[in-house]
Write a structure and sequence with these properties.
By secondary structure, the chain is α+β, with helices and mostly antiparallel strands. It is built from 18 helices and 32 strands. The protein has five domains: about 40-70 and about 450-580, no CATH class; about 70-105 and about 405-450, no CATH class; about 110-115 and about 315-400, Alpha-Beta Plaits (2-Layer Sandwich), CATH 3.30.70; about 125-200, no CATH class; about 210-295, no CATH class. The radius of gyration is 47 Å and the shape is elongated.
Length: about 650
């Protein structure tokens, strides 16, 4: 078909004649192709409309399920104490007073000191690394400070001696306990300089706040037990940070809050008194309760300083296990090689199914293995075939067993649960689950999930409006300019869809309850574009709060409810091969297939005709060229003969 034929016929290029005839042969195929494009456009519109109708039906199905209207939700008055969830529709509506007397805590297995205590003759840099090299400033408030230089030859003992001289008192290193003790006749002044020694040795300017003598505190007793019935819940401030203190809190819980929330301070019980230590002045201020006054906290600076914990630590990223073997954590085998670092072994514990989290506390030089689930569950570490447990203090570690949750419901007797997740069986309340956050009182309220119901009703109305908008767009008829008509204009069955939906939306339903129309709920229709809107949210909110059963009945009527009527109408358009849209799509598919066949036949016939035309015109062109050549030949011969005759006459 790519043959190029030269020449003319009647003054017209033969190639132009062939192209014109080929176009004429294919013209009907072009017309059919245009028809196919129109049908394809209709199918696109039908498919889009069907998708929106399915979305409407999906939302309709959601709100016509019994379980949807019976869904429940639970909330707590104080989410800091506990959060609640409803696991089933069996939960009874109502309010329940929950008093958490004690929240569950996880079991913590703590190793002995993970590194060995260095000898007094050990150099500072060998114990603490190169960061400890440099200068420190030590002295007293009245005597001034002295700069001491720590180099690679400085030992722990020699440095203690230099510090004692600088403070005008005494300083010593206890190689058994692994601690330094500094004593002066005046308030100590310690400053790091360029060395990390003071931080590594846990030596600080011991500014402290201590509770007044007379009340001997223990970590496990509650504040109401420590300070009596006159104790008032409230807050106090440590360095500007507000700390809660409730009568049901234990002293240990308050200490933990201080340590967790206030940077740079360490709270503990020393000789029965609450003590807050820091490297800088401590400010304790009153808040809203009675704790500050009853604890009698006062601030002072100290003339002595002792390492707050034994020195030495393990670099978990470089220190290796030293031998190969395995040990068990809660019955799960943890294998290690001689080249594995401590960090790698701890990671292996965490990645296992032992249900624990292993960490290293560099300040206290201890490995901690904590149960992932709160409650009185033992952490069992044993069965080492190598030396890891003994080398890093886990062979003779100590265990602080976790506590159970203790609580009451509606002022009843105390109950105990192993974890902070209280099931319906623990609570004695069907379908309710509670997650405990801390000790305290709260109210749990169970009721209908009105918010979710309203959200789904909004989605239902939105999907209804989407169908109406598409129907209007696709079936629009512009009487003044048909070019503006929708792609499905004049299709009676689809043009009536919008009106039929609106009639169901606005119909009076056979319901014996309070609500018989959507308008009774404040959902009104617009006859201009067939859309609906929630015009009065108050009516709907009132129905959700006070008449949920009547609202449910309006949607769930077996044959006359809104759900049944709409489902029947929608299915007539989208369900099965006999539905309106599916029927049209199938018919259009057949029409497109027939058009494709006709177009293919036309183009095949045109291809044959094109070849014949090209062949005929090629023969004509060849004959034309041959005739032209002969004409030129005879013309040339005639000229030659005339020339010869003229020459002969002259010679004679």
């Amino acid at each position: 078909m790519g043959t190029t034929i030269t020449g003319t016929l009647g003054g017209v290029q033969i190639s132009s004649l062939i192209s014109a005839q080929d176009a004429a042969n294919r013209s009907h195929a072009v017309t059919l192709s245009s028809q196919e494009t129109i049908i394809t456009g209709k199918n696109t519109a039908l498919t889009t409309l069907e998708t929106q109708l399915n979305s409407l039906e999906s939302n309709l199905n959601a709100i016509t399920k019994v379980s949807f209207w019976e869904s429940k939700v639970a909330s707590t008055g104080d989410s800091n104490v506990a959060t609640a969830t409803v696991a089933s529709t069996d939960a009874s509506d109502g309010s329940y007073d929950i008093n958490i007397l004690q929240s569950a805590t996880p079991t913590v297995f703590t190793s002995a000191k993970a590194s060995s205590i260095p000898a007094a003759s050990a150099t500072v840099s060998s114990v603490f690394g190169s960061n400890a090299l440099g200068t420190i400033l030590v002295g007293t408030a009245t005597g001034g400070t002295t700069t001491l230089t720590i180099d690679s030859t400085t030992t722990l003992a020699s440095l203690a001696s230099q510090i004692g001289t600088a403070i005008g008192g005494s300083a010593s290193y206890d190689a058994t306990a692994g601690t330094f003790t500094l004593t002066a006749s005046d308030s100590l002044v310690l400053s790091a300089g360029t060395s990390s020694f003071l931080q590594n040795a846990h030596l600080f300017n011991n500014y402290s706040a201590r509770s007044a003598s007379g009340t001997t505190l223990t970590s496990g007793e509650t504040l109401s037990a420590a300070y009596g019935s006159s104790f008032v819940n409230g807050t106090f401030q440590v360095n500007g940070v507000s700390i809660e203190a409730d009568s049901t809190d234990t002293v240990g819980a308050v200490i933990n809050r201080i340590n967790a929330q206030v940077p740079g301070v360490t709270a503990s019980i020393v000789n029965g008194r609450l003590t807050v230590n820091s490297t800088s002045p401590v400010t304790i201020a009153n808040g809203t309760g009675s704790f500050f006054n009853q604890a009698g906290l006062a601030t002072s600076s100290a003339t002595s300083s002792t390492s707050t914990t034994s020195i030495g630590s393990v670099d978990t990223t470089t220190t290796t296990a030293g031998s190969s073997g395995s040990f068990n954590v809660n019955g799960v085998a943890i294998s290690y090689s001689s080249t594995d670092t401590v960090a790698a072994v701890l990671s292996a514990i965490n990645a296992s199914t032992a249900g624990v989290t292993a960490t290293y506390d560099s300040y206290n030089d201890r490995i901690l293995i904590t149960e992932n689930t709160a409650g009185p569950n033992a952490v069992i570490v044993n069965g080492d075939t190598g030396s890891f447990l003994s080398k890093f203090g886990l062979a003779n570690g100590t265990q602080q067993t976790g506590k159970s949750t203790i609580f009451t419901v509606n002022g009843g007797s105390q109950r105990v649960a192993a974890t902070n997740t209280l099931s319906s069986d623990d609570l004695g309340i069907a379908g309710l689950s509670l997650t405990v956050k801390k000790a305290g009182e709260t109210t749990v309220t169970i009721g209908a999930d009105s918010a979710s119901i309203k959200t789904m009703l909004d989605a239902f109305v939105d999907s209804y409006n989407n169908v109406q908008a598409l129907t209007t767009y696709y079936t629009t008829v512009d009487t003044s300019n048909s070019a503006n008509n929708g792609v499905l204009a004049n299709d009676g069955s689809l043009t009536q869809l919008g009106n039929r939906l609106r009639l169901v939306f606005g119909s009076v339903l056979d319901s014996s309850g309070t609500y018989r129309t959507l308008a009774d709920l404040g959902i009104t229709g617009n006859s201009t574009d067939n859309t609906a809107t929630i015009s009065d949210a108050t009516n709907l909110d009132n129905a959700l709060t006070n008449n949920l059963d009547d609202l449910k009945a309006m949607f769930l009527g077996s044959t006359s409810g809104l759900g049944s009527q709409l489902t029947s109408l929608i299915n007539g358009y989208v369900l099965g091969s006999t539905s309106v849209i599916e029927g049209k799509l199938a018919s259009n598919k057949t029409a497109i297939k027939n058009l494709d066949n006709q177009i293919s036949q036309i183009n095949s016939y045109a291809d044959v005709q094109l070849l014949q035309l090209q062949s005929s015109y090629a023969a004509y062109s060849a004959a034309q060229q041959q005739a032209s050549s002969m004409t030129q030949y005879f013309s040339s011969s005639s000229s030659s003969s005339s020339s010869s005759s003229s020459a002969g006459g002259i010679l004679s």
